[in-house]
Amino acid sequence: MGQLDGKVAIVTGGGSGIGKGIALAFAGEGCTVVVAGRRMARLEEAAQEARALGAEALAVRCDVTAEAEVQALFAEAMARYGRLDILVNSAGAFDDGPIEDLTLAQWDNVVGACLTGPFLCTREAFKIMKPVRNGRIINIGSISASRTRVNMAPYTAAKFGVWGLTQAAALEGRDHGIAVSCLHPGNTAVERRVHSDRDMDDEPMIATADMARVALLMATLPPEANMLEAIVLPLQQLYIGRG
């Protein structure tokens, strides 16, 4: 018996990184997972890995910044499985640079994927979860939501917004049986970081599987409990007191 037997989860950004790690952790506990994102080949690979763990899995191409695509994602999940117990908002984008050099396109790309996407997905999830008075939403934030770094205005602003969205949704959802949480990762060994030559990527990293363990804990709490916020980072990472 898995901890999530009989449950259905949508995981955006589920084809790679933290999203994929969470999808596989859920699948390993018996959860049906719908992995969504923009790169179909990676989504299909993640779905195959979930099926190898004995879970039902569906890959759906979805750009979370596109309202119609988000609506279609939730409609397809409901048509296939008839329920939605968990939403994980893990899709995102990253771009950086001095504020005076940033383009509007860079800003819109990051804020769209990291903040508008979670809003659109949360809105659709609420429509499903409110009538049944049950559900969990886990937003993937960042330690940048409380400790910014230089030249990271779009990402920092978006992740501050994710934490604000989490609190607003948690407040609106609590009287309807919906628990909304935010997981703030520190340095995590996702593909973008592993293959980067940036100076900061010489810093200590934590594995995506370790991050997924915390998301699984959030998802398996009893209905009357919610872990509103969690910060998970390598023990040696500069966070408190970092410059």
Q: What attributes does this structure have?
A:
Rossmann fold; globular; single chain; alpha/beta; 7-stranded parallel β-sheet; 243 residues
Structure description:
The chain is an alpha/beta fold and 243 residues long. It has a single domain (8-232), classed as NAD(P)-binding Rossmann-like Domain (Rossmann fold), CATH 3.40.50. 43% of the residues lie in helices and 16% in strands. It contains seven helices and seven strands. The protein has a seven-stranded parallel beta sheet with strand order 3-2-1-4-5-6-7, sandwiched between helices. Strand 1, helix 1 (17-27) and strand 2 (32-37) form a beta-alpha-beta unit. The longest helix is centred in the middle third of the chain and has 29 residues, at 104-132. The mean pLDDT is 94.
CATH superfamily: NAD(P)-binding Rossmann-like Domain
Radius of gyration: 17 Å
Largest sheet: 7 strands, parallel
Overall form: globular
List the domain count as a whole number.
Answer: 1
What's the CATH architecture?
A: 3-Layer(aba) Sandwich
Helix residue percentage: 40-55%
User: How many beta-strand elements?
Assistant: 7
Structural class given helices, strands, pairing?
alpha/beta
Q: State the name of the first-level CATH class.
A: Alpha Beta
pLDDT averaged over residues: 94
Low-pLDDT ranges: none
CATH topology name, in short, is: Rossmann fold
Number of helices: 7
Strand line-up in the sheet with most strands: 3-2-1-4-5-6-7
- Tell me what portion of residues adopts beta-strand conformation: 15-25%
What is the string of helix and strand elements?
Answer: EHEHEHEHEHEHHE
The termini sit apart by 46 Å
